[in-house]
Amino acid sequence: MYILANGKSLEAFSAERKDNVAVEVRDHVKMFHYWFFTLDPDEKVIASNIGKALYLADGSAKREYDNLKERGYFTNLVSANISQTIVVDSVQLDMEQEPFRFRCYATQQLVRSTSAVERKLVTQGLLRNVSRSDNNPHGFLIQSWETVLNQDVAKP
User: Fold this and answer.
1) 78 with 42: CB under 8 angstroms?
2) I want to staple 127 with a disulfide (CB 3.0 to 4.6 A). Which of 10, 18, 94, 140 is the partner?
3) How far apart are CA 156 and CA 154, in angstroms?
4) What is the model's pTM?
5) CA-to-CA distance for 1 and 120, rounded, in angstroms?
6) Is residue 5 predicted with pLDDT exceeding 70?
7) If you write DSSP's letter for every residue of 83-118 in order, what string do you get?
């Protein structure tokens, strides 16, 4: 069987899910962090991205969102015209037992009209298997998600 992707013909191979679990887990963690932390100063963008992130995690992510919302974090992004992006540097996994344990290392950038701030972010949590869906294509759910470190990077 061949698949046509971006004008190229690729041969398709079948594989057991267990053969690619680590790759899928890493991508699930990266996508969750992308949706949760990539925000522009627009209420609709924020709601859309956070909504996508919350499909990938349990109530621990919803609690963090609610806490940020209560503190006015998202309102401040809009009123101060701040764009926030994230790049996941690496994801460490412990695949020895389920739920799988992960630690995510990332770099955030907050861009204001007059300056930019870079932050180091480290989060951790667990992942368990759930049904795949259009909203959760990897079929994992992040649990017990917490921020371990979120601090500005000192400029030389």
Assistant:
1) yes
2) 140
3) 6
4) 0.87
5) 44
6) no
7) EEEEEEEEEEEE-SSSSEEEEEEEEEEEE-SS-EEE
